[in-house]
Write a structure and sequence with these properties.
This protein has helices at residues 2-19, 41-56, 69-80, 112-122, 133-147, 165-176, 182-186, 194-202; strands spanning 28-32, 60-63, 85-90, 105-109, 125-128, 154-158, 189-191. It has a seven-stranded parallel beta sheet, with helices on both faces. It is 48% helix and 16% strand. The termini are far apart. The protein has 203 residues and is of the alpha/beta class. Mean pLDDT is 90; it is low at 1-5 and 14-25.
């Protein structure tokens, strides 16, 4: 297990070294979110507000490449204001998640692992909108990699309508019980407003 963990870290560092030239001076925010919109209007509204704020600041968006649900909402909002949108999607999800054919660049990769690695490499910071297990997987992977000092990029959670309240309480328990270093979890930015989130990521 220890060798597997070291191998994973080594491969992520290899990705960063090989592809570092792709990341331009302009900041890019990776947004983790789902192909579903959820049951509350607030979820899509916040996704769109986040997209507009990304574009207003002249940042680029990196995301999962879909055109439906929260993924479509945040991507279309960035495009509405003329912003850059890079989608990364595995081959087997191109049709299932309705790959967005109107974005700046759509990168089709071979696997979920490669999707996450590519998004991690392309972005300068990460934010999770409300989403399902895929969103949680993506969020906790970048948080874990930050804890392991594989990258030094900021990670954030947009807690819309209290969606992540139970998760945040669980993580407080994990810290209190000694399974997660306090400084590692405290480095994760938690906000309910997109403007405050982007301002916090710049600090």
């Amino acid at each position: 297990m220890q060798m597997l963990a070291h191998d994973c870290v080594a491969r992520y560092k290899h990705w960063t070294l090989v592809h570092s030239s792709i990341v331009r001076a302009m900041k890019r925010l990776c947004v983790f979110c789902g192909s579903s919109s959820g049951v509350r209007d607030a979820y899509d509204e916040t996704a769109r507000a986040l997209g507009h704020e990304i574009a207003r600041r002249r940042w680029g968006l990196v995301y999962g490449g879909g055109k439906i649900g929260a993924m479509g909402a945040v991507a279309d909002a960035v495009l509405d204001l003329g912003g850059e949108v890079i989608g990364v999607i595995p081959n087997h999800l191109v049709h299932r998640e309705f790959a967005h054919d109107g974005i700046t660049e759509l990168q089709v990769v071979d696997s979920m692992y490669e999707r996450k690695a590519r998004m991690t490499q392309l972005a300068n910071a990460f934010v999770a909108l409300p989403g399902g297990v895929g969103t949680l997987d993506e969020l906790f992977e970048v948080v874990a990699l930050a804890q392991l000092n594989v990258h030094g990029k900021r990670c954030g959670i947009l807690n819309v309508a209290g969606y992540y309240d139970h998760l945040l309480r669980f993580m407080e328990t994990a810290v209190r019980e000694g399974f997660v270093p306090a400084q590692s979890w405290e480095a994760v930015v938690v906000e309910s407003d997109p403007v405050r989130m982007l301002e916090a990521l710049l600090e």
